[in-house]
Amino acid sequence: MLFSKSYIDHNSILFYVHIHKSGGTSVRENLRFYFNDNQVLRLTEPGINHYIESKIYSSYRPKNENKIKKRLKKIKDYLNKLIKKNDTSIFRDFNSITTQEKEELRFISSNQERMTTPHILGKNFLKITTIRDPLSRIQSYYFEAKKNNGKYKKPYQEIASKYDINGFINYLYDKEPLMVNDPYCVCLSGTRDFLITKKIIDNEFFLAAPIEKIDEFLNLLTIKLSLKKNNFKKYRVSNTNTKEIIINSELIDKIISTNKADIDLKKHIELEFQNILNDYKYLL
Questions:
Q1: Which of 9, 97, 148, 281 is deepest in the core (most CB within 10 A)?
Q2: Edge-to-edge order in the sheet of strand 40-44
């Protein structure tokens, strides 16, 4: 990782690669506390593209795209006048903001199935991410999907409301394999190859940490970026998800066997993060 090597100045942008169910909301909400609204941007995967491996060649073009972007920008501007500190960044679309607005950015949270960094002339992206073990991640996915009571549910949310966790996981393997087969490696490198992904973490990432070390992860970032130390909060922590793994033993074996690259990646990140932590422990 580049934590001890990167040169940080006003052209640096924290770029958080938010992979689902990895503590991303806690990271995003705690970090955005340090920035003004105009310095924060969220990139999200369009709902139509969410885990579409079985429909990989499908195409989608929203109607009146330019009008929608203009309308959203007007809403964002209006809300900015009414509310000084709120998550109005959700209304900003990267392709519709001005060059000056892009130059003002200091923190981007990217929730996409492939790691893609937007092009901003002269900017240095400090890539960061957090990782979780596959068993607790998939279990957490089930409980989040199960509690979704919205009017329009995604197919996997419908399954979670009808079946137990084991039926839900079997559905994912059958219909949404990208959600359960090495999602970290696939997002970061486009492959299920640990060594390829490890090289990206080592050579491109500013900092990566296991979800269990989120507080230390955030503390290290505030130290390195000369930000004020804060008492960090946890966001979107489920009250229904038990800490005990309740997946049946057959599926546990399947999850472990189909996530070997991600398991190796987490071990590598744990080791590298601990080494960095040891170097900076006198400042924590």
A1: 97
A2: 40-44, 107-111, 12-17, 124-131, 205-210
